[in-house]
Structure formats: C-alpha cells, structure tokens
Automatic annotation (TrEMBL):
This is HNH nuclease domain-containing protein. It comes from the Bacteria. It comes from Streptomyces bungoensis. Residues 205-254 form the HNH nuclease domain. InterPro entries: HNH_nuc (IPR003615).
Length: 320
C-alpha cells in the first residue's frame, strides 16, 4: 500500500515520522485495508521516501471535524490548493464548487502503524509521478492507495539506485512467521556512546581500520522481536558509508571467521572490493559476535555452505 506523507499532513494533525510510523483514520479511503505484514511505501509531493513492513497497527477512537458539501450533503469535499472557489465536491453527480462547506463532528477510528524494523530509505529512486504510475488506480486522490507490487518491486530493483529489498523480505518473513530470523538493523548511537567507543577502540573503523574521527559513527546493532520491542546490542565504531552498507546487509561479518563478506554489487567498486574477506580491524567481544551472527543469518541465508557460520542458532541454517 502506498501512503502519502508530508508537511501538509503534519499541519492537519497527523503524527508522521516516515521511517518509524504512519497515522491515518477512518475518514480515509482504504483505511481498514492495511494489515500487519503488509508492505507500506511512503511518498510526498516530490518522490518516494522509503518502504517497510508493518509490524503493528494501533487503533483507537477519536473525533474529527469533517467537511461536507452544502449542495448534496456528501462528505466528498476536497480543499483545492491553487484554484478558487476553495472547495470542490467529488461526488460525480454534484461537482459543486464553493468557498463554503458544512462541518460536522464525527466519531472516527484512528490507526497508527509501526514499521521501523524494515525501513529502507528510498529517496532518489522514484519521482512522485513514477510512483503514481505504479498504483492500481493511477488517477486516485486517496492518501492510501494500492500499489501494483510486482511492477513496483521491478522498478525498485531495476532503477538507477538498487535497494536492498532483502531487508523487506526477511522482515516480512519474521513478522508473518512470528519466529525464526529476527530483523537486525544498525542504528546510529548517541554522542556519549560514541565518545565511549572512541575511548575503547581509538580512531579505528572496525571494518576498514584507522579513520578520521569525523568520519566515524557509533553503530548499535538492534533486534526487532516479534513483540515489537527492540534490544540494544554491541556497539561498534564504523566509517559512515560502511555503517550504512552494513545496516542494509551489503556488508556482513562471517561470525565464524570474523571476516567481511561483501555483496556482489559492492565488488564493482575497488575501494570496497578490497575489504571482501578482510579481518576485523579491532578485537571484538563474544557479544558483538552474537549480534554479527544474527545479522549474518538475516542477510546471508543463501551464501555457499563453506562460508556459513557453524553455530548461529535456529535449525533452518544449513550446517556442514
Ligand atoms: Zn456535492
């Protein structure tokens, strides 16, 4: 499902933060169609912002002032951005235009999705027009619209910026199965935590070695369990670009050999290609290895057996 985000919605009182949650209510068409495990893609007036998988939907009750058409009495009234009169009725038999509308107080159901675990930033991949063309109903005005998933997926995998859609697949599996592989993400840590890591490790990126302090970020490994709670894992100092690639699974650490494993698409870049198979630049704790193993399990389920770690938990991991 495609959901419209943006500053206009915030001014209308919706509490939006595209990377973590989305709010809507029963005045919106398709409001009851979204369910846990569905893919949600968010866009604004300009472009696709990102996509994720719905982990949870909180519902509540509320009241809202909603406009109705003074000519036909229906609630299909839209506020126009550029043209006057300000309101137009969407009822095809009415199409009344006016600066005046009626307002009535209405009982509504409120919805709020949580989708932080699988969020992939997709800015720069598809324009708003391209996204609209991938909806089931292109001309729709609805803020929640059904996407033609296969075409959307195709556009994302064959666009100029390939996205790590495996994050979506594994998160969806973890949510719908309710068990098995957890979704592991890497988030940026607070300044105090970064300072602590700099004291412990020095100005060294755990993947690439010595690096200027300005380029180093504190990275937290997180696991999103089926119940939606997340637990803080081991902290690592990572160069900013490597942090992002690690979060997206394009770089993983083989927990058995403690060496880096790069996704094929990164090997086209000499600066990254030389990291493939490299040992970690600093000693890590068993706690770190445990988290790296979970991350590996999420992103490297299909690598050849000789690269598989030997003890990483669930029985569905092939062990030779
Ligand atoms: Zn009307």
């Amino acid at each position: 499902m495609l959901a419209k985000a943006g500053s206009k919605r915030i001014s209308e009182g919706y509490d939006d933060s595209p990377a973590t949650h989305y709010s809507w209510d029963s005045t919106v068409n398709n409001h009851a169609k979204l369910k846990v495990g569905d893919v949600i893609a968010l866009w604004d007036a300009t472009e696709l912002l990102g996509l994720s998988v719905i982990e949870d939907i909180e519902t509540g009750q509320g009241e809202k002032e909603t406009p109705y058409c003074l000519a036909c009495g229906k609630a299909d009234v839209a506020l126009r951005k550029r043209k006057l009169p300000r309101f137009v009725c969407w009822n095809q038999e009415c199409k009344h235009e006016s600066d005046e509308v009626g307002w009535k107080r209405k009982e509504i159901t409120t919805y709020r999705s949580r989708h932080e675990a699988g969020w992939i930033d997709a800015r720069g991949t598809l324009t708003a027009a391209e996204v609209r063309a991938l909806c089931v109903q292109r001309a729709s005005q609805n803020s929640l619209r059904e996407l033609r998933w296969h075409d959307f997926h195709h556009a994302l995998t064959h666009g100029g910026v390939p996205l790590p859609l495996r994050v979506i697949d594994t998160t969806q599996k973890a949510i719908t199965d309710g068990h098995g592989t957890a979704t592991i993400r890497v988030r940026r840590g607070q300044p105090a935590f970064r300072k602590h890591l700099l004291e412990v490790f020095g100005e060294v990126c755990v993947f690439s070695g010595p690096a200027p302090v300005q380029a180093l970020e504190a990275a937290h490994l997180y696991s999103y369990a089926a119940n939606g709670k997340h637990h803080k894992g081991g902290g690592l100092l990572l160069r900013r670009d490597l942090h992002r690639l690690f979060d997206l699974g394009l770089i993983a650490v083989n927990p058995r050999t403690k060496t880096l494993h790069l996704a094929g698409e990164l090997k086209a870049y000499p600066d990254y290609a030389r990291l493939d198979g490299a040992k970690l630049a600093v000693p890590v704790t068993p706690d770190h290895v445990k988290w790296m193993a979970k991350h590996w399990e999420m992103h490297r389920a299909n690598v050849p057996d000789d690269l598989m770690p030997r003890q990483v938990g669930p029985s569905h991991v092939a062990i030779v």
